[in-house]
Amino acid sequence: MRKKQNMGIWISKPVNAHARRQIAIIILIICFLFILLFYPVSAQDNINNSIPVPKGKTLVLQPGIGLRYSVNDKIKLYQDFRTYFYQNILSKNFEELSFSASYKLGRFNNFYFTTNLGYLLTLDNNYKIHAYRPKVYFTTSYHLNKIRLEFRNRLEYIITTGENGGGSFRYRPRFLVQTTFKLNQLRISPYVYNEFFLGQNGFSQNRTKLALFVRYHDFVLNPGYTLKIKPGTKLVENRVSLNLSYTIPTFTKKKQTR
Fold it and tell me: In this model, does residue 100 exceed pLDDT 90?
């Protein structure tokens, strides 16, 4: 029994050291992304025929709820509802309702390939549809121990309604770094990503998000902070988000062995 105890203590030391190295890597990558974010960029922003945005800084609160369901090992369904509260521009408050399905294309060594097809509705203060947004994702992720690197390509077509309505394509490449560790019954996954918005008029905006997933059984809490910059209008948005999602359990019959 003593040998097993000593062995357990001896094994735990390199695991803790390895976890510290992973955290150090995440911190270095976060610093790099923030340096990249503040690098001077000149661009114009008139991608989706929206109302001109004033210059300055604003705080946006973004609460949301969602549902998840796994049809099988390859197909997952998602539904999300988010609302956006602007601190000093109340007329810009809006809501989003989205539906999507993801499909695991496969893997090659430590590389995983996934595609996602979705549909998003933007609602104004009176819950009237302001824009339709069909979208498709192509994601490649690389898993190395507890580190996950992800490159996501998002293509969407924005259809706005009203007198100034119209349509436009937008491409949103995103690079994400994530790690995962367990704390009692919690599964915690901090992550950071940097996302660029490219439309018909070129580069439009940049978003950097620092957040984490906290999973407890079928519930996932996702607090986060997003810094959004529109170089053409010198607008800076500080978004504080808090999303709660629930995964509907799949009831499968297990084979009984005698």
Answer: yes
